[in-house]
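Risk register update: the risk of archive-format incompatibility is retired. Evidence:
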Amino acid sequence: MEILKAPRQPVQRRSKERVKKILDAADEIITESGWGAATSHVIAKRAGVPPAGVYHFFPDRYMIYDALISRHAQEFLSVFNDRLRRTNISRWQDVVHVVVKEIADYCRINKTARELSYGCDGEFATRWSSSANNSTLADMIFDLYGKYFEHPDVENLDTKFQLVAEFMTAGFTHAVAKHDPMDQKIVEEMRDAVIAYMATWVGDPVRRS
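Archived output:
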């Protein structure tokens, strides 16, 4: 895989505004026409900036992908944490239910998040491994589980939560491929499969007070 330089971070207000315009334009194009249409030149035209202005902050279009994923991740976590405060978590299975439901709901109404996380084409998937996203998701599930329940005393616990995240990613990817925006039956089957897998090693967890 090609090693890319980190995108240039804007410092001045004008630079920050230009980066926002670029990302807003990319988001709009992906929502309308998909990731394949979001070339640097098309993004520059939509944002009303010269192509050099895009390359200045994002020398490679895949850096725009990273920035958009980060933007949507922050937005999702804000929505997720708000919903979590109003959700009753009484069983460990509820952790899986709420994570799957909120990711599915967010991706259904945010095409860019859905496209970049679970719907990009083969060329994109070949270049960009989903391992980083899976690790982030695994950490989120691990932390959320630990907020309500004692973690089970089993070997390779980190690996087990990593597998949970990979199961979820595979399920969401298949659900998006099957039906736009997301096939609900596949999402439910994936959720139930994750719960069945976790039941083999979670046991009867102690709920935190």
